[in-house]
Write a structure and sequence with these properties.
- The protein is an alpha/beta fold.
- It has 2 domains: 277 residues, 3-Layer(aba) Sandwich (Aldehyde Dehydrogenase, Chain A, domain 1); 193 residues, Aldehyde Dehydrogenase, Chain A, domain 2.
- It is built from 15 helices and 20 strands.
- The radius of gyration is 23 Å and the shape is globular.
- The mean pLDDT is 97.
- The protein binds nicotinamide-adenine-dinucleotide.
- The site of nicotinamide-adenine-dinucleotide has 29 residues, from helix 7 and helix 8.
Length: 488
């Protein structure tokens, strides 16, 4: 057991300084692979801390927005370089704090670095249009202006990539930032902020306040000087944030849950489809918003697909993400583990057949971690709770369908619309899928998870507030358009 005195304390970052929370309380961030290991102590902050952070961000705003895009971009390049130097340290912290395997954590950190460099470049690209005026003596054009202070509220499942894909565009377009990371990943967030500090970002441009969603998150959302709120997380939280932001006229962006389907057509390359289903559904312990959770398989290949899937799932090695032999790490928290186990019980109770897994994994000394077996349910019907609600764990539901039309109808019959994929060789089937699938991301002969940083990302239906993040689409949220009419 780690004693509290051996554990490093991480501070808030406000107005360019590392400071304790105003009430001086800390909480533990623990390792989900071994709940007795405390990864760090994080500040349990209050509304007062948020007020200080927002005031600092507001003071820094005028000077930051007056810099050119190239000058702001130079800071992003420096942050990227600092993160690159500390890549191993950041990735190891992520694995220890939220459980994903080290190769996945390294991949995510490298993605964060690429996102920073991508948006650094955006600082030199066009931000407006010239529009012919009906007055021949006038010049009419659009320009983009920053929102002002942006509140960033992020989840734990991509603790580097998500904060960066929100902060980098916010900063390049001239906004200043107050970020509240998820408590389960706040030490990892502190490492990013250390890199931002090392890069010499001007005082107050980026501020971090850690603590609970209900106190710190709510204070950011309700603060009258926070002009925009960008949130990624669960639907329950997103709805509250959207309502509060709307009530005071703040701009908001919500990216939320998914219940992502894969369709396996009768003509699919089954080996490829199995690989994509395993990778999309079970990597990161199923804790990706784009994770595959419903598997619609055409009846003529159902049994052979199931057999191949089972063979492959049995090979999955569960364990501490720091060990190179591990393919799947623990759930990120005890809470998350209990949620997954309760959905497994619901599935059994609803009459689905448990094909594999379905319980906690405690072998090889894993009883102190939040491990669960990869789980596959057979004979699932689309109205079952396990086919409708987001589980956010390594659970796959197999659903037999007769036709592609039936698969598409059922795949669309959920409240979410984040990502979807299909395995087929038929161009007609591909086209029907592209046209009829209600999802913000559709992928063919590829798993449901997998987002490229230069492309727009976001969901349809209840998965999103219908805005898009990443790529050039990010400018829509982080700026306002100003139309300018000039007559000399
Ligand atoms: P969560 O909603 O519990 O928490 C997200 C963040 O909101 C955390 O920082 C939390 O502290 C904060 N928060 C909680 N209550 C709040 C409140 N009342 N006011 C303001 N902030 C509050 O989500 P989570 O468990 O951290 O993340 C998992 C969820 O995120 C899943 O539903 C997943 O699908 C979703 N997600 C979506 C995307 C996407 O891009 N669509 C990406 C990753 C994760």
């Amino acid at each position: 057991m780690t004693t509290i005195t051996q554990v490093k304390k991480y501070l808030n970052y406000i107005n360019g300084e590392w400071v304790s929370s105003s009430r001086g309380c800390v909480e533990r961030s623990i390792n989900p692979a071994n709940k007795n290991e405390v990864v760090g102590l994080i500040q349990s902050s209050t509304e007062e801390d948020v007020n200080k952070a927002v005031a600092a961000a507001k003071r820094a705003q005028k000077k930051w927005r007056s810099l050119s895009g190239t000058e702001r971009g130079d800071f992003l390049y420096k942050i990227a370089n600092s993160m690159e130097r500390r890549l191993d340290e950041i990735a190891e912290t992520m694995t220890k704090e939220m459980g994903k395997t080290l190769p996945e954590a390294k991949g995510e950190t490298m993605r964060g670095i690429s996102i920073l460099r991508y948006y650094a470049g955006e600082g030199m690209r066009k931000t407006g249009d010239v529009i012919p005026s009906s007055d021949s003596q006038a010049l009419m054009f659009t320009t983009r202006v920053p929102l002002g202070v942006v509140g960033v509220i992020s989840p734990w499942n991509f603790p580097v990539a998500i904060p960066i894909w929100k902060m980098a565009p916010a900063l390049i377009y001239g906004n200043t930032v107050v970020i509240k990371p998820a408590q389960e990943a706040a030490v990892t967030a502190a490492k990013i902020i250390e890199c931002i500090d090392e890069a010499g970002i001007p005082t107050g441009v980026v501020n971090m306040v850690t603590g609970s969603g209900s106190i710190v998150g709510t204070a950011i959302v309700n603060h009258s000087d926070v002009n925009g709120i960008t949130f990624t997380g669960s639907n329950a939280t997103g709805k509250k944030i959207g309502q509060a932001a709307l009530a005071r006229g703040a701009k908001y962006q919500l990216e939320m849950g998914g219940k992502n389907p894969v369709i396996i057509a009768g003509d699919a390359d089954l080996d490829l489809a199995v690989e994509g289903t395993i990778s999309g559904g079970l990597r990161s312990t199923g804790q990706k918003c784009t994770a595959t959770s419903r598997v619609f398989v055409q009846a003529d290949v159902y049994d052979s697909f199931k057999e191949k899937l089972l063979e492959r799932v049995k090979e999955i090695t569960i364990g501490n993400g720091m060990e190179s032999s591990t393919w799947m790490g623990p759930c990120t928290s005890e809470n998350q583990l209990n949620t997954v186990l309760s959905y497994i019980e619901k599935g059994k109770g609803e009459g689905a057949t448990l094909l594999y897994g379905g319980e906690r994994y405690t072998a090889n000394g894993a009883e102190d971690g939040f491990y669960v077996y990869p789980t596959i349910f057979d004979d699932v019907t689309n109205e079952m709770v396990i086919a409708q609600e987001e589980i956010f764990g390594p659970v796959l539901a197999l659903i037999k369908v007769n036709t592609i039309e039936e698969a598409l109808t059922l795949a669309n019959d959920v409240e979410f619309g984040l990502s979807a994929s299909i395995y087929t060789k038929d161009i007609g089937t591909m086209m029907s899928f592209i046209n009829e699938m209600d999802a913000g991301l559709v992928r063919i002969n590829s798993e449901t998870a997998g987002v490229e940083l230069q492309a727009p990302f976001g969901g349809m239906k209840q998965s999103s507030s219908h805005s898009r993040e990443q790529g050039q689409a990010a400018i829509e949220f982080f700026t306002a358009i100003k139309t300018v009419f000039v007559k000399a």
